[in-house]
Amino acid sequence: MKKFLLLIYISMGSFSFLFGGDKVEGIHYRDSLQKVIELLPADSTRLSYLERMAYCHQYPPLDKFFAASLWEESIRQENAYYENLGAYYMATCFDKRHDPDSLSYWVDKLKEMALQRGTYDYYLEQKAALSRAQASKRKVEKAIYTAKDVLEEAIRYRSHNGEIAAYNSLACAYSVSSRRSESLEILIKAHKRFTERTKLSLRVDILSRIAGNYGNIGQDSAKMPYLQEMTEVLQEVMTKEPEAKNNWTNMAIDCQVKYIMHFLNKKNFSQVQEHIEKAKALLAPHVDPVFWLNVQLMQLQYFSQTREYDKSIALIDEVTPVILKNYVYTFGMLMSYKAMTQKDKGDIEGAITTLRYLIHTQDSLNNAFSASQLDQVKEVYHIDELLLEKQKISNTNLIRILSVLAILFVLIFFFYIYTRSLSRKIVQSEKAAAEAAARSEANNRAKERLRTEISHDIRISLNAVVGFAELLMEVDADFDKESKVEYGKIIQENAEQLLDYVNNILELSRLESGKIKYQQENCDLMEMCREAIDRARQFEKNIVQPFLQTTIQEISITTDRRNFLALLRSLIIFKKESNTDIYRTIIHIEQHEAEKKLVFRVINTPLAKDFQGNRTTLVRNEINSHLIHYFGGTYEVYPNDSEAPTLIFTYPLS
C-alpha cells in the first residue's frame, strides 16, 4: 500500500494546474495594485515599485503581470537597468511554466543586454533554467549540453551564481537520465562552492535536490544535515523578507514533505503528524497545486500506516474532483486504493460500489489516459518532429517548384506595377510640362501687357502733373483762388498716385530680381490681422469696412512680418476720391489640419473688384502673389465670383 501511494506521489511530481478561484483572487489583487502603479510618476519611482512587485510575486498568475509591466515600462522610459531586470523576471515566469521556447526567447534578450552591460548573472541563471526546462521535456542530451555550456561561460565571465546554477541544472539533467550518482556528485560540488554571494534560491534548490537524492538511496543520516540547512535558510529568508514570503512557500512545503517521508520511514508518527500540520499551514491560494497534492498524498500514506480508514476514505473523496479534472490517469489507481481501504475496513458493499463506479468510467478514463500517454511518448521520442521532418523531405521538390513559380509571379506582378507607374509618371510629367509652358507663356504675355500699360499710366499721370503745373506757372494767367486750389489738388493726387505706382513697380522689380530678401520669423497671425484692421479703420480716406471671420483664437506662422502686414493692408485699405461707395470686405480664415495650411478667403476686396481696371491694383496683386508663392502658398483672384469679387490665398503651417 505504501509503495502504491508513493507511485502516485512520484507520478504527480512533474505536472501542475491552476484553480479558477485562485485566478479570480489574483486578478482582484492585481487590479488593485495596477491602480497604485498608475498613480506613481512615470520615472524611476514607478520602475522601482514594479521591480519590487515582480520580486515579491514570483508565482502565477501575478508573476507574469508584474514582470511584463516592468519590462514594458522600462522600454518606454529607455532604462537599460530595469529593462535587464524585466527580462530576467519574464524568463523566471516561463521557467516556472517549463516552457523552453518562450524561455529561450528571453535568454537571448538577456544575452544581448549582458554583452552590452557586462553583467552576466541574470543571463547565465536563466540559460541554466533553460537546461532544466529541456530536461523536463526529456531532451536530456540537449539539457546536459546547455548546462555545460553555461558552466564554461560562467567560468569565463567569473559569474559565481551562473556557475552554481549550471551545476544545479547539470545535476537535474543527470537525475532525469537516471545517473543519480553523478547527479549527487555535482550537487555536493556545488554545495561546497557556496559563499555569501550565492543566491538563496539556488541554495535552497540545491539543498532540496541533495536531500532528495540521499532519501532515494536510503541514506537518511546523510540526508538530514542538508535538510536541516534547507530549513534554516528558508526560515531566515522568510523572516527577513516577509513581503516576499509567498515566493518561498512551495519550497517550504517541499521541505516539510521530505520530513514527513523521513519520519514515515522511521515510524515516528508523532513527528509525521507535526510536519503534516506544518505543511497544511503553508497551503494558500498562491501555492503550486502539485505541492498541495503532495501534502494530501503524504496524509494518505500516514492514514494507511496508522490504519485510520475513515480519514483515508474522506481524504480520497476530497481530492477526487481535482484528480478527475486534472490528473485523469491516476484516477483509476486512487479508486482502487479507496476500494482496498474500504475492504480492509470491512465495508465490502462500499468497496463494490467504488469498483462499479470505476468500471463505469473506465472507458473514458482510458481514452483520456491513452491520449495523455501518446502526447508524452511523442514528446519523449520527438515523434512529431520526426514526422514533420519526413514530410518536409518528401515535399522538398514540390516546395521548391512552388517557390520558384511564386517568385516569378511576384516579379511579373511588380514589373507590371512598375511599368504602369512609370507610364503614369511620364504622362503626368508631360502634362505638367505642358501646363508649365502654358503658364510661362501666359505670364510672359501678361508681363508684356503690364509693362505697356504701366508705361501708358505713368505718362498719363506725368502729363497731368506737368500740364497743370505749366498752367499755373503762366504769367498772364488769371486764376481765382478756388481754381488754383483745385489745380494744385490735381497735381498732388497725380503725383502721389505716380509715386505709389513707381514705388510698387520698383518693389516688384527688386523682388523678381532677388535683390530684396524676405526675413523669416515666427509671427502671431491673429495679432497681425487685428493690427491691419485697426489701421484700416483709422485711415481717414479709406473706403473699406473690414471684418474678420474665423474660429482660430491663436496661431503662429513663419513669414516676413513687414511684407505680410503690407499684404493685409492692401486687401482692406483703398483710397478713391471719385467713388464714395463703401466696400464691406470680409476676411474669412480657415485652418485645414489634414493639408497643414491656412485658407484666406477675402470677399469684396478692392484688389479683386478693381482687378482689371486699375494698374496699381495689378501691380499690388503681383507683389502679394510673389510673397505668398515664396513661402509655399497659392494666390488666386476671382473678380467675377458669384458671391462678390473674391481673392483667395493659402499659407502653409510650419
TrEMBL record:
State the EC number(s). Answer: 2.7.13.3
List each coiled-coil range.
none
Q: Which GO terms describe its molecular function?
A: phosphorelay sensor kinase activity
Q: Name one Pfam family in it.
A: HisKA
Give the source's domain of life in one word: Bacteria
Per its UniProt record, what SMART domains does this chain match?
HisKA
Q: According to its UniProt record, which reaction does this protein catalyse?
A: ATP + protein L-histidine = ADP + protein N-phospho-L-histidine
Q: Which InterPro entries match?
A: HisK_dim/P_dom (IPR003661), HisK_dim/P_sf (IPR036097), Sensor_HK_Regulatory (IPR050736), TPR-like_helical_dom_sf (IPR011990)
> Keywords on this record?
Kinase, Membrane, Transferase, Transmembrane, Transmembrane helix, Two-component regulatory system
Keyword Transmembrane among record annotations: yes
**Signal transduction histidine kinase dimerisation/phosphoacceptor domain: which residues?**
446-514
Residues passing through the membrane, by range: 398-418
Keyword check for Repressor: no
Specify the protein name. Answer: histidine kinase
Originating organism: Odoribacter laneus YIT 12061
